Amino acid sequence: MPDMNHSATETRDIGAFTLEGWRLTALLTLMGLGLWVSDLLVLEHISLKLGVEDDSGICASSTLFSCKAAAKSAYGAILGLPIAAIGEAFYLTAILTLITVKLSALRAPMSSPQSWPARLLSALAGATTLSVLYSVFLGAVSVITLGLVCPLCVSLYGVNLVSGALLWRCLTPGSAGRAKGWIQQWGGLWRGGAPWLLTLLMGASLTVAQGAFASRWQEGLKAQRAQGFETPIQVEVTVSGPTRGESSAAQVVEFSDFQCPFCRRFATYLKQSAEELKAEGSYAFQYTFKHYPLSAQCNPHAQRDMHPRACHASAAAICAEEQGKFWEMHDTLFENQRALEDADLVRYAQALELDMERFTECLPSDRVKRRISADIKEGRKAKLKGTPAFYINGWRFAGAMRPAKLKKLIKRYAYGVIEEEGK
Predict the structure, then answer these.
(1) Which of 174, 169, 182 is nearest to 22 (CA)?
(2) Which of 120, 166, 129, 127 has the alpha carbon at shortest distance from 20?
(3) Does residue 46 surpass a pLDDT of 80?
(4) Number of domains the chain contains
């Protein structure tokens, strides 16, 4: 008898869970919205992996906005999987949990905090609380570290916050109050199977989200590769500027940005391809570098300072070119892409044994600005859409294509040699 009285008192202290029709509808709507927005962010990650760094739509509606900046930040992915894909898994898990709670409540009323649906809803409330805390962390990182706001991310923060508030209200307060009731409810939560079911659902949803991300990324990559062979256009582009290679039959003109990670990758691929074809003794090519910094500081066509040190890096490369060491500076800048402050540029120039008086005079000069501006104007005239972009005897291509693909394109569009796809 005493045990029964204690149990009754504990129940009254903890309070009971309720999930009225309107609250269930609101939560399902919010979780569905979160799933949809997370999917939009996954698409941003995929396009970024395919070399598209420019924002579009709502992500480009303000100079303070950028979804791509958030996607490519150190906090944009965990172990190679985008945070957005993990978000998809969470919202899918929440939807499945809410449906399970409602179906379970038909057989086991939620009036008791120890009932199965009450425990399951409490477990979801705990997971949502963690998502709210993580949202606060990511929001602070975005503002403080990036100096930009991801509008799609902010909408997810709102979804998490409102969902957490609704789930908080699902616990009707007992004599101990709602806060103490939650603490008591969560204190004994792991003794039941609710958290384990939630973990199982999250694991399954994460597997689905990861598989969907990998599949869509591969589809996008195949489409991009197919486009490279099937739909290039030919435009007029001049072969002037620093060059590597000796062939005049195959001319590759590259528009690049020293702070662009895909440009860094492509620079390596270009050099490797040239060395491999030269070693083969046939289909050699010459490539020319042109500047296209994605920064509003020197590029009027850039939406924002996506790469705030790119203009300065281009200036350093041009000043090194004046002293006959463009390619040495080119390689150094790409190798040290995360260190392009003024002091770093001076240090690189000293390491290359440049005349420092000439170098420092050159950096802010009008001739450097005119040179960068001329390359940017030519890029726009050549219908450039982003970096890296390259032209093989005038045929336009884009993206950091790997050496195997790049060599096929050079053979086809410079020498007229069409290889079978399997070779």
Answers:
(1) 169
(2) 166
(3) yes
(4) 2
The answer as to whether 238 is a domain residue is no
| 202/310 same-domain check | no
Residues 287 and 360 in one domain: yes
Q: For residue 237, is it within any domain?
A: no
What one-letter code names the amino acid at 271? K
Query: What span, in angstroms and rounded, lies between the C-alpha atoms of 163 and 156?
Result: 10
Can you give the CATH number for the domain in which 404 is found? 3.40.30.10
User: HSE of 215 in the Cβ direction (CA atoms, 13 Å)?
Assistant: 6
Report the pLDDT averaged over residues 236-250: 85
The answer, yes or no, to whether residue 305 has pLDDT greater than 80, is no
Confidence of residue 386 (pLDDT cuts 50, 70, 90): confident
Residue 5 CA to residue 109 CA, distance in Å, equals: 21
> Residue 246 pLDDT more than 80?
no
Domain presence at residue 377: yes
pLDDT for 50-107, tens place per residue?
A: 766 667 778 877 777 888 888 888 888 888 889 999 999 999 999 998 888 888 767 6
Co-location of 171 and 252 in the same domain: no
pLDDT band at 421 (very low <50, low <70, confident <90, very high): low
Please identify which residue in the block is written with the tokens 């919010």. Answer: 30
For residue 77, the SS3 value is: strand
Distance in Å from the first CA to the final CA of the chain = 83
- Whether residues 282 and 191 share a domain: the answer is no
DSSP class of residue 9?
Answer: H
Neighbour-count burial of 33, counting CB atoms closer than 10 A to its CB (0-12 exposed, 13-18 middle, 19+ buried): middle
The predicted pLDDT at position 4 comes to 38
What's the DSSP call for residue 333? H
194 lies in the same domain as 279: no
- Say if 348 falls within a structural domain: yes
Are 204 and 255 contained in the same domain? no
